[in-house]
Design goal:
Number of helices: 10
Shape: elongated
Radius of gyration: 28 Å
Largest sheet: 12 strands, mixed
Strand content: 35-45%
């Protein structure tokens, strides 16, 4: 189970539709056992009341007997860990000494068994030792990684996760806004939903035995990412193409961009997902798969939005944004380069009515990039040229920042950097990786917003 950190508390909540058949003692076997004696048991990491009941009674469904005998201990410990209640024994912690009334044996009881189906979401929460969520602005799907201990070899056995199963993840936060006096989230409780993911990778290692689950945010229809197609799109727009492809994938589309005309464009042996990514990139649009939906937006327009937060690097100086001191910045790095960046683009395209390629220039002379591609008009070529140079120039100034988690910062938002001198300015968050373990932190990968070159 992942622990809260200092006064702030962060708990991961998992919803998992995978189930497993577990062997538990049958009613007949339990009834035939002799009445046992009261014993005590010290809770260990990964324990659940269900599992403890199974040890002493041979049947997990008898966990209420243990809860009722220890309700005061369980509830007081839950409150010490920042919970309003234990949720009827769902939350227990290592070190709790529990009374086991009428224990049938010494905790190693075996009996005739029957199979029952149990949900695994809560068990994942209790055996979790590490969690990360990666939120990407464009070019990839959001993803999640969960590490669990498997000392009892259950996940390798009866609880073996199911590839392709859906897994939902969220974080519950308490007192996370304490350091932001005067804001709406001060001393509050809040939940931040990471989304729904499909388990696509399972790894076991040892010793000790550990299970790592990896999941990716994908549409319901697998064909969107796996089935190559060849289609010629004519007299349409990027938005119309996206609507048709996304509708077939069975998920909603969120489109925030101009109506870009497509005279003719071929999807040649590409999956719908790969084709749509490449088409958006070609015209300066971002695309991401997030929480069972597809989001397409104009990167330049998002770069122009106001920063959601300011970080100041002046020692002990309080920032104007939230009254937040520098201690929230755990680690940082900054880089600037001209390698692979350009002042303009010379773009060539062919016209069936002319013998020579048509050339258009976007930007200014200096470090010019030359490109040849398909275009249906001068304006179409200019759009593509601007997308090329703007994408390249997002590498001019980059920064990574490790911070105490702030869920108001997501990929696709901007933050303001102050107090460093030349690196100061507005940065666009390309990726935000959340890590929950010994505390809750975020690793931000960002580029400094440059004045865009326009067609």
């Amino acid at each position: 189970m992942i622990r809260p950190h200092q006064g702030r508390q962060a708990f991961i909540k998992i919803a998992y539709n995978g189930t497993a058949k577990l062997a538990v003692a049958s009613d007949a076997a339990a009834a035939s056992s002799e009445e046992g004696k009261t014993q005590t048991y010290t809770v260990k990491s990964g324990d659940t009341l269900w599992g403890i009941a199974k040890k002493f009674y041979g049947k997990g469904t008898k966990y209420p007997a243990i809860y009722n005998a220890n309700v005061e201990t369980i509830e007081s410990t839950a409150k010490q860990h920042g919970k309003k209640s234990s949720d009827n024994g769902h939350w227990i912690w290592p070190g709790e000494v529990l009374t086991i009334p009428d224990a049938e044996g010494d905790g190693s009881k075996s009996a005739e068994s029957e199979s029952v189906v149990v949900s695994l979401g809560e068990k994942i929460e209790q055996q979790m030792t590490g969690f990360s969520y990666t939120d990407v602005a464009s070019g990839q799907s959001d993803s999640v990684q969960i590490t669990m201990h498997d000392i009892g070899m259950e996940w390798m056995g009866p609880l073996m996760p199911v590839r392709g199963a859906a897994l939902g993840a969220a974080v519950w936060l308490a007192n996370w806004g304490k350091a932001y006096p005067g804001t709406e989230i001060a001393d509050s409780q809040q939940t931040f939903t990471y989304g729904t993911f499909i388990i696509d990778d399972i790894t076991f290692s040892g010793a000790p035995t550990t299970c790592v689950l990896k999941g990716v945010s994908v549409p319901v229809n697998d064909d969107f990412k796996t089935k190559p197609k060849t289609v010629t799109w004519e007299k349409t727009t990027i938005k119309d193409i996206a609507e048709k492809l996304v509708s077939a994938a069975g998920v909603p589309l969120y489109y925030e961009g101009d109506s870009i005309q497509i005279k003719e464009y071929e999807q040649s042996k590409q999956t719908d997902c790969a084709f749509l990514y490449s088409l958006c990139e070609k015209y300066g649009l971002a695309m991401k798969v997030y929480n069972q939906k597809i989001v397409i937006f104009d990167i330049a327009k998002y770069e122009a939005k106001a920063a959601v937060r300011t970080f100041s690097f002046t020692l002990n100086q309080i920032t104007a944004a939230h009254g937040q001191v520098e201690q929230d910045i755990l680690k940082w790095s900054y880089n600037t380069t001209i390698d692979g960046t350009y002042t303009g683009v010379e773009f060539s395209y062919s016209d069936p009515n002319k013998d020579e390629p048509i050339k258009v220039t976007v930007g200014n002379a200096g470090r010019m990039y030359s490109a040849n591609a398909q275009a249906s008009s001068k304006y179409d070529a200019e759009l593509q040229a601007a997308a090329i140079v703007n994408a390249a120039n997002r590498k001019i100034e980059t920064m990574t920042l490790t911070i105490r988690a702030d869920v108001s910062i997501v990929a696709g938002t901007c933050i303001q950097i102050a107090g460093l001198g030349k690196p100061d300015g507005k940065y666009f968050v390309d990726q935000a990786k959340h890590s929950v373990g010994s505390g809750y932190k975020m690793d931000l990968t960002m580029h400094k917003v440059q004045a865009p070159i326009k067609p």
